Amino acid sequence: MMKRFIWLCLILVSVSAKAELTIEITQGIASSIPISVVPMKWSGTTELPENIAGIVRSDLERSGHFSVLSPDDMLSHPSELEDVYFRDWRLLKQEYVVIAQIKLNGQDQYQIRYQLFDVFNEREVLTQTLTAKANQLRDIAHRISDEIYEQLTGIRGVFSTRIAYVTTNPMRTHFNLAIADSDGAREKVVMSSKYSIFSPAWSPDGKRLAYVLLEDSGSKVYVQDLATGDKQLVSANKGINSAPAFSPDGNKLALVLSKDGNPEIYVVDLTTRHWIRVTNHYAIDTEPNWMPDGQHIIFTSGRAGKPQIYRVSLESGYIERLTFEGSYNARARLAQDGRFLVMVHQSAKGEPFRIASMDLTRGLLQILTSDTFLDESPSVSPNGVMVMYAAKYNKRSILAAVSVDGDVKFLVPSKSGDVREPAWGPYLN
Amino acid sequence: MQLNKLFALSVLSLAIMGCESTSSISDDSASINGAVIEESQTQPVGDNGSVDVVTEEHAEAVADPLLEQKVIYFGYDRAEILPEFKEVLNAHAKFLVANPQSSIVFEGHCDERGTVEYNLALGERRANSVKSYLVVQGVSPSQLDSVSFGEERPAMIGSEESIWSQNRRAEINYRTAVANY
């Protein structure tokens, strides 16, 4: 009997530990840039702990802005400028080539030198020398991807950022709040519970996560320090305590409380614990999110009968309705310095739930998703380009991503179990 | 067939009664209930509370079979009490008025459509609308409490209307008088 119990524990442990994410690219942009990332020349004797060129290739491919040539289709694998025959790369219709060398520079100290060439003009566009320990090689790979991406698209890369999400077993009796690299690698579980965990929200410095834990007595809001694992109870009032969102300066938390009988938006100063009630309406008000100015909050409200997105001024209390199209608009997030809203959208009752973006200056709404089912929980990358969201796909809860313009799509299923509630973390430096 | 199901249900609720030692709703019992519904496809099982009603002091009141029904269902994105459930709620109201030492926690639940946070709020609305209905029927508010579980504790797992309609619900959970101390 005891033996069987131990086996059961082992199985449970291995199941909960193996919820790593994988990525399947489903759509890239038509005018993607052809690029070759040549396998790096490694002068060491043992195998490299990480395939850096491989990580860079999948980063660039996943962005949708690049079409990446497989190393098997390359005519040569140069690592020095003198071995780069631009004519060959032109023949392969490549616009850019990346070459690199990596060597061991003392104990556990790797030195990587890479060069990015413009094939057509036969000139070097970017060169960099980086050093790292073995456990930092993935960080170095993502950093190289960020540099190349920014050099060629003019947009800051987000390959070095992290995502937070919640994994659960199908019976929903065990929940893990995890963080991972933006490609799903190096998953770390930061909190486990038999209770549902949802609405994870990053602090602007990426050092803390706020989230909701739905205990038997109801929902409570916690803030957890990622380095120490210390978790601090922020709100456990009677009724709902939910939907936390850090202010742009990281000092305050907007959240939803129903202690006065009805869900309303509140703001709490995390240092002084001074509370301010922001909304006051008999309808549901929830899902607050800060505007970059720290003076306005967007939120979902049912005050017009159906959920729609509104903006409130913290100074004046003035409330303005932002969405009019569709029967259900909820859980809005801001992209590109508040120019775009990204939200859950249902065009009419009975229609599917989709992720949509809305240009706030022009009021134009665009539906971004089409292949997944019950799309929800959109979270925008810090460069405002990609939206990660949760959805159903083949009867499983998965994460998926779509660009704010709808052109790039990929799926991020977990290797086992269900995954939901993604939150894209901030830039780390 | 129908009899078999009923028999299976009563055996299971006995089993639940046997296991349940406190009035709190544990995750385990919730999943047991979920499994029951899934297997038997019958409605009124999402209750942990039956355990607490069937105590000796309440024995006579249990005679009203409506008290056995401890789940009521809602329309999509709605929190109003549907007319077909008023009789059930009236029975519970009558019981609570007659037994002021009894108390109830209403659990509000939603189907998986829509956002997690909006559903948490909607679940609370459902629980509160049942609560208000009972207050109107003369039950003291001090006997009534509510909690929302949003879409997080479905009675059944799946993504179709027959399952969603089972998940849009309010569960009526009796607390023993002991639990109030």
Care to give the gist of this entry?
The complex is a heterodimer of chains A (429) and B (181). Chain A is mainly beta and 429 residues long.
Structure description:
The complex is a heterodimer of chains A (429) and B (181). Helices cover 12% and strands 45% of the residues of chain A. Chain A is built from four helices and 31 strands. In chain A, a hairpin with a 5-residue loop joins β13 and β14 (231-235). Chain B is an alpha+beta fold and 181 residues long. In chain B, 43% of the residues lie in helices and 13% in strands. Chain B has a four-stranded mixed sheet with strand order 1-4-2-3. In chain B, β2 (103-109), α5 and β3 form a beta-alpha-beta unit. The longest helix of chain B has 21 residues, at 116-136. The A-B interface holds A 170-173, 194-196, 198-199, 214, 216-219, 239-240, 242-243, 256, 258, 261, 263, 284, 286-287, 300, 302, 306-307, 328, 330-331, 344, 349, 353, 373-374, 376-377, 392, 395, 421 and B 24-28, 31, 34, 76-77, 112-118, 120-122, 124-125, 128, 147-150, 152-154, 157, 159.
User: Mind summarizing the main beta sheet of chain B?
Assistant: 4 strands, mixed
Give helix and strand order of chain B, one letter per element, not per position: HHHEHEHEHE
Secondary structure category of chain A = mainly beta
Task: Point out poorly predicted stretches of chain A.
Answer: 1-18
Largest sheet of chain A: 6 strands, mixed
Number of helices of chain B: 6
Q: C-alpha Rg of chain A, in Å? A: 23 Å
Mean pLDDT of chain A: 92
Tell me the fraction of residues in β-strands of chain A, as a range: 35-45%
State the helical fraction of chain A.
10-25%
Strand order of the largest sheet of chain B: 1-4-2-3
Terminal CA distance of chain A: 52 Å
Beta strands of chain B, count: 4
Quaternary structure classification: heterodimer
Task: Summarize the largest interface: chains and residue counts.
Answer: A-B, 42 and 31 residues
